[in-house]
Amino acid sequence: MPLLVMKFGGTSVADLDRIKNAALKVQREVERGYDVIVIVSAMSGRTNELVGWVEATSPMFDAREYDAVVASGENVTAGLMALTLQEMGVPARSWQGWQVPINTTSQHSAARFLEIPRHNIDQKFAEGMKVAVVAGFQGISPEGRITTLGRGGSDTTAVAFAAAFGAERCDIYTDVDGIYTTDPRITSKARKLKKIAFEEMLELSSLGAKVLQTRSVELAMRYKVRLRVLSSFEDTDESSGTLVCDEDEIMESKVVNGVAYSREEAKITLVTVEDRPGISAAIFAPLAEAGVNVDMIVQNISEKDYEDHPGSVTDMTFSCPVSQVARARKAMEDARAAGHIAYDELVVDTEAAKVSVVGIGMRSHAGVAARMFKALADENINIKVISTSEIKISVLIDRKYMELAVQALHDAFELEKP
Amino acid sequence: MPLLVMKFGGTSVADLDRIKNAALKVQREVERGYDVIVIVSAMSGRTNELVGWVEATSPMFDAREYDAVVASGENVTAGLMALTLQEMGVPARSWQGWQVPINTTSQHSAARFLEIPRHNIDQKFAEGMKVAVVAGFQGISPEGRITTLGRGGSDTTAVAFAAAFGAERCDIYTDVDGIYTTDPRITSKARKLKKIAFEEMLELSSLGAKVLQTRSVELAMRYKVRLRVLSSFEDTDESSGTLVCDEDEIMESKVVNGVAYSREEAKITLVTVEDRPGISAAIFAPLAEAGVNVDMIVQNISEKDYEDHPGSVTDMTFSCPVSQVARARKAMEDARAAGHIAYDELVVDTEAAKVSVVGIGMRSHAGVAARMFKALADENINIKVISTSEIKISVLIDRKYMELAVQALHDAFELEKP
C-alpha cells in the first residue's frame, strides 16, 4: 500500500471544527488508496499556555520536566484526531512518542532523532488500521524520559516518519497555500511556485521564510523526502501547493527562484583590529559563546591612514540580528578588557536589512551578481556588505530601501513569469 | 527511609499558587525525614474540558483514545509539581503511568491495577531523589495503551502506591479537613472524628459521603493502608484530619460513629407479584441489565385481600436513585410484556430519602435499631423500608423529614460528644 505522511500545524487543529476539517483531508487520501501517517501539533495556544506555566513555576527549569509537561499538548490532539477519523469510519489510532517509540537523544527541548522503528505501526497497518495519528514534536530518550525537539519539531517529525516509512510524499498543511517567489505583502507580483528544489528551500528557510523549519528541510534533502506545502483552509487536490523536491524533478529552473529578506539586521564593525593569525577566532569565539548569531562577515583593509599602527591592522565587519547587538557589544568589550583582542572603536549600524536572491540555476549561469547589483544601483540603493553561496547572493542595505530592493529584484529576474 | 504517600486532588492543584502550597506540605514531610510519593490529579476543570472535547468529537468514543486524551491532564500537574519542588530545593521528578509502569487491565476508563513494580522509583530514591511525583488516575495496559481508572482514580492510585511501597501512611489532601460524624451543613453539632475504622468509612462512602471513593477505601482496607484525610487549605500537622485505620488502632469506639444520608431516593413497589421460586432473579436481573442500582429490597406480605389471586402472591419493594426510576420502570414493563414476570401494578414513590447510622460498635451492642427507631418515632417520622448490615442500619423515609431525622439521630447517639 502506498503511504503518505500528512502534517497539520497548530492553527490547522486549533479547535474541534478544524480538526474535523483536517480529518476530511486525511479521509480523502485514504479513499485514494493510501495508508496515512498523520503528524499533529498541539492545538494553537496550548503549547504557549503550558510553556507559560513551566516558566512561571521555575525560571531555570529542569528541561526533562519541561518536556514532559509541554509534550502533553500534542497527545491531546492526537487522541482527538484519531477519534474524529473513527467517527468518519476511518480505522485510526493515536500514538504518543514513547509508544512508537520515537527514539531520540537526551538533549531535552532540543532532542535529535536516533531511530524510528517501524514494527509497531506496520503491524497495525497490517491488521487493517488505515491511519496512524502520531503526536509531533516529541520522543523518548534512552533513559525513558519524554523529550521534545525544539522549534518546528512537528515538521521535522513529519519528515523523519516519511523517511523511516518510505512515504511517497510528506504533505505539510499550514496556513499559507505554498511557497512564493517572495513575500506577497511586499509585491503583488509574487507568484506561487509549483516546485522548488531542496537547496533553494533550505536557503529561503534560513533567510527567514517561516513556512518550513530549516531543520525539516535539511532532513528532507538528506533522505530525499518529497515535501509538499499546502493550505489547510482551502480545497486542495493532488496539484495544490508547492512541491519541495530534488532538483532532478524540476525540468527547467530559472536562474533565480526567490527573493528573501530579513528586516532587523545590524552591522557591527571593529575598527583598526590588530591583524594576526588567530584574530578571527579571538573575535568570533566569544560572540558564539554569547549566543550571537553572526551571519555575514567581511574583513577589509580600510582606506584610512594606518601611520599610528606600526603593525598590520584591519577592520572586521559582521552582521547579526538587531536584538543581539547589546550581547555582541558586551562580548567584544569583555574580550578587549581581557586582552584577547584589540581594536580602536566598535561602530554599530542598527538600520540595516538583508535582501537575498536564491536559485539553483545560479550554479550554471554567470552574471547573476552583476544583474543584482545593477538593479539595486538603478534604484540608488547602496550595498553595505555582500555575501554569496553557490545558490544565493545576499546584500546588506539600508533598511528603508528594503521593500524597494525586493520589488526591484523581483522585477529584474522576472519572477512574476512562470 | 520511612515513606509517605501524599495525594492532592484537583482543587488542591487548581493553579500554580495552589501547586506551590501543596509542594510546601510535601517539603515539610521531606524535612521530617520521609521519602515521599506524591499522587496528583489534573488541575481542576482540565479533565472536564478534555472529556468535553472527546464527547463532542465522538459520542460513542473509543475508550482507548478517551483515556489517552484525558490522562494528559495529570501529566501536566505531575511535571509542574516536580518543577515546583525542585525550585524549593527538593530533589523530585515526575512519573507518568507508563514510566513507573503502573500496570493495569485493559478495561479502558475503568481499569484495575495488576501490578506496580517498585524497581524504577526505588532506584531513583537510592540515587538521592526525595520525591516521586506520580500522575494519578492512569496506567498502562498489557497492550501498551494508556488506561484510566474511572471516578476517584487518583485516590485509588494513592492507596495502591502506599500498599506497593509499604508506606507508613497515605495522606489524602482535599477541600475538607476530615471525616465528620455527619454533614455539618445539616447540623452544627457535627464533630470531626480523629479516627474511623475502614469498615465504617466504607459504609459512609457507599452511603454518599463524597470525601473518599469507595474503591480506594476497599483497597486500603484490604492492604491495611492507613489513610489520612486532611485539608490542603489549612495549616496541618501530624495530628490534623481524620485517620482511617484498622479498628484495632481505635481504642474505644462508640456504638455509632456517623449518620449518613442520601437525598434522592425512590421507592418502587411491584404490587401482587406471583410468588414462585426464581421470581427475585426474574425481577432483579433485568434491573441490573438496565443499569439500575438497586439498593434496599423488601419482600412483604401485603395486608390486602388476595381473594382474586388463588396462587401464592407477594409485594416486592426496592429502592434506587430517583434518576433511575424511568429506566427501572421500563425494565419491569418490558419483563412483564415478555411474560417473565407478572404483577398488578407498579407503584413509584419519588419523594424518599435514606438515612443511616454506622458504627463498628454495633456488632457488640444490642438495641441500636430500637434506639434509632424510637428517635425517629419521637419526631413522628414514618419508616418506609429498613435495611441492616453488621455495622449499619438504614431507613427509607419521606424526603421532607430527612434533615430532621439526621439531627434527631445525631442527638440520640450523642455524636457531638468525643
From TrEMBL, chains A, B:
UniProt keyword terms in alphabetical order: Amino-acid biosynthesis, ATP-binding, Kinase, Lysine biosynthesis, Nucleotide-binding, Transferase
GO process terms (BP): homoserine biosynthetic process; lysine biosynthetic process via diaminopimelate; threonine biosynthetic process
Q: Which GO terms describe its molecular function?
A: aspartate kinase activity; ATP binding
Pathway this chain belongs to: Amino-acid biosynthesis; L-methionine biosynthesis via de novo pathway; L-homoserine from L-aspartate: step 1/3; Amino-acid biosynthesis; L-lysine biosynthesis via DAP pathway; (S)-tetrahydrodipicolinate from L-aspartate: step 1/4; Amino-acid biosynthesis; L-threonine biosynthesis; L-threonine from L-aspartate: step 1/5
Q: Does the keyword Membrane apply?
A: no
**Amino-acid biosynthesis is among the record's keywords:** yes
For this protein, the record's InterPro entries field holds: AceGlu_kinase-like_sf, ACT-like_dom_sf, ACT_Aspartokinase, ACT_dom, AKii-LysC-BS, Asp/Glu/Uridylate_kinase, Asp_kin_monofn, Asp_kinase
Q: Where is the ACT domain?
A: 268-355, 357-418
- EC number(s) reported in the record: 2.7.2.4
The entry's substrate-binding residues are: T47, E74
Q: Which GO terms describe its cellular component?
A: cytosol
- Pfam assignment, any one: ACT_9
What residues bind ATP, as annotated? K7, F8, G9, G10, T174, D175, Y180, R185, K210, V211
* Catalytic activity from the UniProt record: L-aspartate + ATP = 4-phospho-L-aspartate + ADP
Family per similarity comment? Belongs to the aspartokinase family.
Name of protein: Aspartokinase
Source species, please?
Paracoccus thiocyanatus
Organism classification, top ranks? Bacteria, Pseudomonadati, Pseudomonadota, Alphaproteobacteria, Rhodobacterales
